[in-house]
Amino acid sequence: MSQSEVDVQSLFAEEKVGWSGYVEWEKYPEKKAIATQILNTKKFTPIPEFQFVPLPNTNPILIGHRWKEYHEALGLKNIVDFSWKTVLEEKPDLLHVLDFPYNGETTREQLLLGKLTDNKYHFVRNHGGIPDIQEDVFELEIGGLVNKTVKLSLKDLKDPAKFPQAEVTVTLQCSGTRRIEQINEYPGDGDELINAPWGEGAIGTAVYRGVPLKKVLKLACGGVTPECKHLEFIGVDTYFKKNNVFNYAVSVPWRKVRNNEEVLLAWEMNGKPLPKSHGAPLRVVVTGYIGARSCKWVYRINALAEPSMGPVQAQEYLYFTSQIGKQNTKYSNGFSIQQMPVSSAIISPVNRQVIVHEGKITLKGWAYSGGGNWVERVEVSPDGGSVWYAVDQDDMTEKHYHAWRLWKIDVPVDAEGWLEFCVRTWDSSNNTEPTFVRSAWNWDLHVTSSCHRIKVYSVNKTRAATMKRLKELEARGEGIEPLSHPLEYQLEDTEEYLKACRAHPREPVC
Ligand code: MTE
């Protein structure tokens, strides 16, 4: 190890025993300044281009060279290594969209397994490395505009005699879910921390157990002061923005926290201890908001008069108009995305699938609405959005205030050839989805809530000519797929051809 490597390791050392992967930045402005100086002297690999060129057909799909190099420059390579080791242990079967910071997507099959997403299959979105914090030494600090600053151990928090516990079924959705549809329409901001090219699987549902933050503020801190308008959550992980270094920080308004079980401090996910990749030992779960506010590995909460100045809150997760782009974007000219709108996705069949059927096609998917709205109705159209069929209530999972509903429908289909199916959902406030991706395209490629569309090739066996062709193919040991491969035999014999053409000549009569 060179002298300079030794230096950075001692400069940015972990300061708490049992808190591996945690470097405190927010308390030490001078330490931040030194880190910036070091980063300013280095050249880093540019982020990969994947919007103007096709995505690589690899798993991991994208490699986070730049973010790894940032960590290495500050002597934090152990964080990079531990993160990937944890991913392989906890999330071996996800689609690894980005290896570091880890972004992993739930596959289609995993999404449809049930109302609750198995912890092993729940998507992960990280801005930094996964830390390794021992539960028995962990403590949460609460300060700022509270009547009493406190430090609470996990044992305190978990003690039902001290704080009432709650279990809530919550769908967490990254505001980048289905981003790939926006990219395919028009490329947008690449962002230093890659705006992951998610498909339909950056969403998942779990039962979280913990204590409502409102209760902790009241019982441990004696309440917040009248000036408090926002609660800031600080996570252990190290985050980078334009060569500056931070701990992950976001905030939600106090008015949200006041709604008892809508903001939880959680340690359990689906009846099991929170996995490391999901924020162990303690995370925030904010119902109905974008996933970004549900801070993982939370170790400090600050009651503030204004929203957090952390870059994830102040400079990212912004919603711009389509007139805003690289030429004029600022942090202040987009609004902050907090509550998630209604959205849905068709998970089966998949885009470009060939479907041989007997007059109906089965579709399955998810539907979700945030902001305390729940899913009331899901409708599917087999013709791009003119005719809609409603999903039967018996074919939807039960309603929750803060969770998705999985659905299934058999849609009558007579037509053959390429058809465009789409789905739209209505929520409890009668909101529904924009019609086309273009209707809500935005520079940061967030919140793709427009009707999800897929093109499928319909082969209807109830039609005599189709059935005949399928039988011919079967007799030859062939199938209809691959669709683009030509048939290797004559489509009809000469006698049949002449009969048809003489009955209906191709030339008009004089
Ligand atoms: N908390 C910390 N500390 N660091 C992060 O990178 N990512 C956020 C949020 N909480 C993040 C975080 C984002 S953008 C999302 S979508 C959710 O965590 C994802 O939660 P999950 O990884 O448990 O599915």
UniProtKB/TrEMBL annotation:
| A GO BP annotation | sulfur compound metabolic process
What lineage, starting at the top, does this entry show?
Eukaryota, Fungi, Dikarya, Basidiomycota, Agaricomycotina
Q: Which InterPro entries match?
A: Ig_E-set, MoCF_OxRdtse_dimer, Mopterin_OxRdtase_euk, OxRdtase_Mopterin-bd_dom, OxRdtase_Mopterin-bd_sf
Instruction: Give UniProt keywords alphabetically.
Output: Metal-binding, Molybdenum, Oxidoreductase
Species this protein is from: Mycena venus
Write down the Gene3D superfamilies for this protein, in alphabetical order: 2.60.40.650, Oxidoreductase, molybdopterin-binding domain
The entry's protein name is Sulfite oxidase mitochondrial
Give an example GO cellular component term for this record.
Answer: mitochondrion
Q: Which cofactor(s) does the record list? A: Mo-molybdopterin
Domain Oxidoreductase molybdopterin-binding intervals: 127-310
Q: Which GO terms describe its molecular function?
A: heme binding; molybdenum ion binding; molybdopterin cofactor binding; sulfite oxidase activity
Q: Which residues form the Moybdenum cofactor oxidoreductase dimerisation domain?
A: 336-457
- Which Pfam families does its entry note? Mo-co_dimer (PF03404), Oxidored_molyb (PF00174)
Does this UniProt record's set of keywords contain Metal-binding? yes
